[in-house]
Amino acid sequence: MPTLQLSPTVEEYIFGINNVLRLLLVETAWTGALIPLLILLFFLSTPAGRRKPIFIMNAFAVVMGIGLGSFNIHNKVTAFKLHPGNPRKTTLLAHSGMLFLMPVAMDCILAYRLTAVYPRHATPNHLLATIFVPIALFKVTRIINLAIFLKGLSNALAKSKYGPSISPGDFESLWNVPYLKVEWVLQVIDNSFEQLYISVFPVAVVEGPITRKDLQGYIIIQLIIIFTHREYLLVADILVTNLYFEIVCVVFATIWAMKTSTEVEAQVDRGTYPPGSTDYGGDMVFALPTESGGTGSVEDGNSIHNHDSSAHFSRWVFPCRA
């Protein structure tokens, strides 16, 4: 039975379509999931909550995720009509910049939540410096490292012999430079440092159904794959998935916090908040024993609500700026 022989041009075109289609499906699914998530974020928030920095940062993250997905979907659909195997230089540079810098922005949102655990008005300055100066240095180092990578990528694209496009071989050689591996190693260390200060806090902290440890686990999996696999397209799929998963986790943590905060405030107003309880939501709630028995108190930043406490605890509710 005779076999059909395809020309090299047709084979390259089919190979390019397969790669573009796989990434297109991943980005379309995640972008579509962010739209109802953005609606849910606004639906479950209050007018006062929408003015908080953490809500603004979360909404910005979701909008950026939708924008990144829409940008890539448009470019990949356009690529079907042109050269699916050779992405355009300007498109690749813009895509890479957003794809690699957005995780840093997501980690900044997660780091900002530490201000709920260590509020400025209740934490010594030296402890604040010990916590937040290294976190800031990690973020600056990661941004500088990615800026060097993007500068090298821009220079390599300018020297490419493929005119406005770049070949898969050229892109694979750029993918294997050490800057990306350095970024992901720094991300693991950065997140571990922040998790350390949450875990050593002397009270139980409930972050919600998805914690920072879950995010860190996915980053470690990504690191293992980047060190053991040479297929950059597979790593690109995982990188895109991790980015959108982190956006979803950050938003769900905020929604969980708003829900918990509302329940805590309602219990405090009714005087039914459980004695000795600790919880973490939009606010940070922790318990300390009073020197004398009798009545416990709960402070919401503006007023004190007194009620009987059999465990003789004073509980402070610090309004969460995160």
TrEMBL record:
Membrane-spanning intervals of the chain: 20-43, 55-73, 93-115, 127-150, 232-257
Keywords: Membrane, Transmembrane, Transmembrane helix
Name by which UniProt lists this protein: Uncharacterized protein
